[in-house]
Every structure is written in structure tokens, then in C-alpha cells.
Amino acid sequence: MEERFYLTSMRNHAALILRTSRLHWGIENQLHWVLDVVFDDDASKVKNRIAAQNWVMVRQMAAHLLRREGTGKGSLASKQFRATMDLPFLEAVLTLR
């Protein structure tokens, strides 16, 4: 069993604190899952700590841009693949609208 301790100035709001914590970790876990499954982040061979942090940031930005792409068709992995093969689609993903 794991225990976590949180410091807060909120009093008598255990249910709210628990819900907020679970929401945060749900979002965090979803992002890590996407980075690992879609971008194969865990298999990265980058050893330099700063370079590894930079690549994680690039992958996070790529995930955000692919999610933001307007057609809504396909998974992030399929959009990533399509962007490698279809220059107009890549331009649409990278263009701020």
C-alpha cells in the first residue's frame, strides 16, 4: 500500500483534495501514456539529461499540435504517420489558425 502526503491550507476538504489529486494524476498518466505509446519515449537513446528534457518537450508539443489538428479523424499515431507522408497535412498541423 502506498501513502502520499500533501500540504495544504484547505481545512475539512478531504474529498475535494482527493478529487483534485486524482484528476491531476489522471491527466499526467494520460500524457505519459501518449508519449510512450505514440512517440516511443521510453525507448529514447538520448543520454544527456538536458537533451532528453528538450526531446520530451518537443514530443509534448507534437502531441499537442496533433490533438489540435481540426479534422478529428484518426488517432494521434495515425496523424503522426500521415504528417510524415502528406506535406499539406503537416503544414496544416504546424500552422497556427
UniProtKB/TrEMBL annotation:
Superkingdom, natural source: Bacteria
InterPro entries in the cross-refs: ISAs1_transpos, Transposase_11-like
Alphabetical list of NCBIfam families matching this protein: transpos_ISAs1
PANTHER family recorded: H REPEAT-ASSOCIATED PREDICTED TRANSPOSASE, PROTEIN YBFL-RELATED
UniProt-recorded name of the protein: Mobile element protein
